[in-house]
Amino acid sequence: MAKLVERGIVIERLDSILERFEQGFKRIYGQSINIDPDTPDGQMIGILGQIKVDLEELSEDVYKQLDPDLATGAWLEQRVAYAGLIRRKASYSYLRSVILTGDPHAEINSLIVSDNNKVRWILDQKVTLNESGAARADFRSEELGAFSLNAHTQLTIETITLGLNSVTTSVDAEIGIEEETDSQLRQRFFKSRARGAINSAEAIEGEISDLLDVKQVIVLENNTSQVDSAQVQPHSINVIVEGGNEADIAKVIYKNKGAGIGLQGNSSVNLMINGKQRIIKFDKATPTDIHVSMILVRYEDFTEIDKDEVKRMLSNVKFKIGEDVSLSRLYSPINTVGGFWVKSLKIGKNADVLNAENIVIKPRELARIQRANIQIEVE
Question: Which domain of life is it from (predicted)?
Answer without folding.
Answer: Bacteria
